[in-house]
Design a protein that fits this description.
The chain has 261 residues and is α+β, with helices and mostly antiparallel strands. It has one domain (12-129, 154-254): Porin (Beta Barrel). It has helices spanning 47-66, 141-144, 155-159, 186-198, and strands at 21-23, 26-32, 71-80, 89-99, 104-112, 117-127, 162-165, 168-171, 206-213, 222-229, 232-239, 245-254. The longest helix is centred in the first third of the chain and has 20 residues, at 47-66.
Length: 261
Amino acid sequence: MNDPGAPERRHVLRDLGWTVTRADGELEGALTVVPEMHVPGTAHLRTSILAAWADVLAGLLAVDSIAPRVPVTLELDVQLYAPAPASGTVLGKGRMHKAGRSVLVAGAEFQRDDGTPLAFAAASFMAAPDETMRISTPTSADGLLPPGGRLDVPFAVRAGCERRAPGEAVLPHSDEVLNASNTINGGLIALAAEEAALSLSPGATLSSLGLRYLQPARVGPVVARAEVRRGLGRIEVRDQGNDNRLCVMATSRTFSGSAPG
């Protein structure tokens, strides 16, 4: 039985506090960087947060195209020009590149508040095979992304993602990490992949992160296991509670000079 006096639980991504609004057929938003968003041991925004934000921007554009069907992420990648900032505001813009019958592709660009390009991302989607699943198309800014709060604990702690061993990270299943299809959110799977890779490269940050989603993570926890050589990482993410099925294959790379080996 739920405690009526307990605080309302909300999705992990809402605590990142980003905004999303419509502008001339595109989506725009802003993110205020706080220390709790940093990669542990560094003063740089996590690449996985940019990946999660790109997934949100591209996913909302996909909803615009295929609603009431629910979009499912197939691939997601983010590439950084330079290590992400420690503070200030990051601006994001998402646009649809292709809205085909079977596959949709959208992209996102990120820049610092002074206009300096920071990163770009791309994501592809398909409609969920279960045609009974339905989602509505948001029409207002509040409908796009309900107001959230300020992250007041480290991002991985907020998501419950833990480094269990060198090269291994675990993300548990909870209502706060699910997406519209009631599977573990693809942007938060990016966090698990990042944590697994960075556990082998202390003090480093990722210059790129690419994920291929093979099947939904329905049960959890998801377990990400990474191998890293000369800054290049190969990561497998499995749904431990669902016969340890392979859900995501990912690659990562750290900035030159920031990783051992």
